[in-house]
Amino acid sequence: VQLVESGGGLVQPGGSLRLSCAASGFIFNSYTMSWYRQAPGKERELVATISSAGGSTNYADSLKGRFTISRDNAKNTVYLQMNSLTTEDTAVYYCHGVRGTLKVWGQGTLVTVSS
């Protein structure tokens, strides 16, 4: 059971990044998937969630309009498109899957927004 994030890195303010999270070892299309983030010195917070079939999404209020979560169940991958990034978006971004009491976390990918 594994989630592996990729796509993080250094980006300038105003830029964009797309994070990917590849799943293996479980029935991906039965899991609700989410992205969380944890900024330095802060608690982990929920960024966005997508239902198992991809038909429903939810976002943190402060991120609506800039971030988009999507998934490709054929590729066992969930994505997070991030636009108009600011320094406040600097954090480690984590992928998370849940089905009932079953939960799985990725190891995280660092996004640094800096000029």
Q: Topology, pairings included?
A:
Blueprint: E1 2-6, E2 9-11, E3 17-24, E4 32-38, E5 45-50, E6 57-59, E7 67-72, E8 77-82, E9 91-99, E10 102-105, E11 109-113
Parallel strand pairs: 2-11
Antiparallel strand pairs: 1-3, 3-8, 4-5, 4-9, 5-6, 7-8, 9-10, 9-11
Task: Tell me about this structure.
The protein is an all-beta fold and 115 residues long. It has no helices and eleven strands. The strands form two sheets. Strands 2, 4, 5, 6, 9, 10 and 11 form a seven-stranded mixed β-sheet that branches. Strand 5 and strand 6 form a beta hairpin. The chain is globular and about 40 Å long. The mean pLDDT is 96.
Name the poorly predicted regions.
none
Q: Overall 3D geometry?
A: globular
User: Rg, please?
Assistant: 13 Å
* N-to-C CA distance: 37 Å
Oligomer: single chain
Number of helices: 0
**Range of strand content:** over 45%
Average pLDDT score: 96
Residues in helix, % = under 10%
Computed structural class: mainly beta
* Major β-sheet annotation: 7 strands, mixed
The ordered H/E elements are EEEEEEEEEEE
Number of DSSP-assigned strands? 11
